[in-house]
Amino acid sequence: MEEEEGEEYLFKVVIIGDSAVGKSNLLSRYARNEFNINSKATIGVEFQTQCMDIDGKEVKAQIWDTAGQERFRAVTSAYYRGAFGALIVYDISRRTTFDSVERWLQELRTHSDTTVARMLVGNKCDLENIRDISVEEGKSLAEREGLFFMETSAFDSTNVKTAFEIVIREIYNNVS
Ligand code: GDP
Ligand code: MG
Question: Where does the protein end up (predicted)?
Answer without folding.
Answer: Endomembrane system
